[in-house]
Amino acid sequence: MKDLFDVSGKVALITGGSRGIGEMIAEGFVTHGVKTYISSRKAEACDATAARLSEIGECISIPADLSAADGIGSLVDALRSREDKLDILVNNAGATWGEPIEDFPESAWDKIMTINVKSPFFLTQSLLPLLENAASAEDPARIIMIGSIDGLNVSALPTFSYGPSKAAVHHLARTLAAHLADRHITANAIAPGLFPSHMTAHVIDTMGDNIIAGTPLKRHGRPEDMAGVAIYLASKAASFVTGAVIPVDGGLTGAKGTL
User: Fold this and answer.
1) Which of 221, 213, 107, 96 is nearest to 163 (CA)?
2) Whole domain around residue 221: which residue ranges?
3) How many CB atoms neighbour CB 79 within 10 A?
4) Cα distance between residue 63 and residue 203, in whole Å
């Protein structure tokens, strides 16, 4: 039982790992002995984060643009050239778009659905052989999808494709869980609430105090909050957990009163 949360020696890939939620998870993994690959579209940022985390443990940068098939292919090929198995895949790379409903463009809808839903599916598909090589009945390989509480609740912001895309991410996790269980691969989703990041900077500046006031635990998320739940899902402690969507939001979706 003392090794229940031990993830040392595992190999992980985190997309969108150079900043925000992805960087929080990457730092948690690296600190706890996971050989961690991070990927992001901006090579300079990806390399810089990997260099910083390499002072703690083992972190390798593989920059890639996952919005297109060739970017997914280059990431998969680069990982295959270095590893013969993958214990943990964190599908975190994502994007958002806000604009009044009258002006919301079709291109934005397509971009968000591609990056947030389509790309994680096809990356997962391409990495199945490596995940299967790591999988066993005692210690399954893990897929962790990063959704959002906007996929559970309706956001007040005019981000009309973001919430539906994250709801799709949650359901994709359940679908993968059902179809990959017999291969000893689990799939779960994390639905973050308010965490400081580049993506949420505008929200924090304009609405942060109100969101925190309406959050039962009266604060925003911290890096260790996100790292903790990801480490749990990657550890033996969660080997019997699959198809779950875990809100990490200070009680905003599950413990907020109606009065």
Assistant:
1) 96
2) 11-248
3) 21
4) 27
User: Does some domain include residue 142?
Assistant: yes
Distance between CA 67 and CA 49 in Å, rounded?
21
Instruction: Please tell me the number of Cα atoms within 13 Å of 140 on its side-chain side.
Output: 22
CATH of the domain at 40: 3.40.50.720
- Distance (Å, whole) CA 171 – CA 114: 16
Predicted confidence band of residue 244 (pLDDT cuts 50, 70, 90): very high
Q: What is the pLDDT of residue 258?
A: 62
pTM: 0.95
- Based on the structure, what is the number of domains in the chain? 1
> In angstroms, rounded to a whole number, what is the distance separating the alpha carbons of residues 141 and 10?
10
Answer yes or no: 37 catalytic. no
Q: Quick one: how far is CA 174 from the chain centroid?
A: 15
Catalytic residue, chosen from 162, 190, 194, 225, is 162
